[in-house]
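Exercise 3.2. Students should predict the tertiary structure of the chain below and write it as structure tokens, then compare their answer with the key that follows.

Predict this chain's 3D structure.
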Amino acid sequence: EQPEPTGGAMVRIILETMFWSLLIALGIILVIFLILWLRRKLLLSRKKKKFQSQNVSDAAAWIYADAAALLEKLGFDRGNGSMRDLAKPLEDKYGTEFAAQFHAATDLNDYAMFSSHPMEEEHRKAVWCFHSHVLRKLKSELKWYKRLWLKWVRCLY
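Answer key:
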């Protein structure tokens, strides 16, 4: 027969169990964070490559598509319709300057997608300017937990 453990031994066993459980939980959290960080780094590097493509038309189209995804997260969902359908709601919410920038970026996207003529570097910069403006709106309007979700899980920015 073995003697029953005393109260001090039982407390020690519970503390050791809690310590190892906490250590395992912290390890799992660290691994999850590392996976999210590596995934984000990989996805953003792919996106950056597309945005800096040698073919300016392709780059402008990719930048505009990303801006459209950001607009969707702001609540401007076009469904299966044209992006031009968003012009009036964008103007109502953000003003005529933003709407003009949206129209210019949409025209440049149409040119990039459907024209056989090459685009100039200024066109890519103009679409990038629109993208940056949309991203600033997204960061300023969403709550912190939604921004964390879009940044670390969806890797939108």
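Discussion points: The two ends are 65 Å apart (CA to CA). The CA atoms of residues 25 and 35 lie 15 Å apart.
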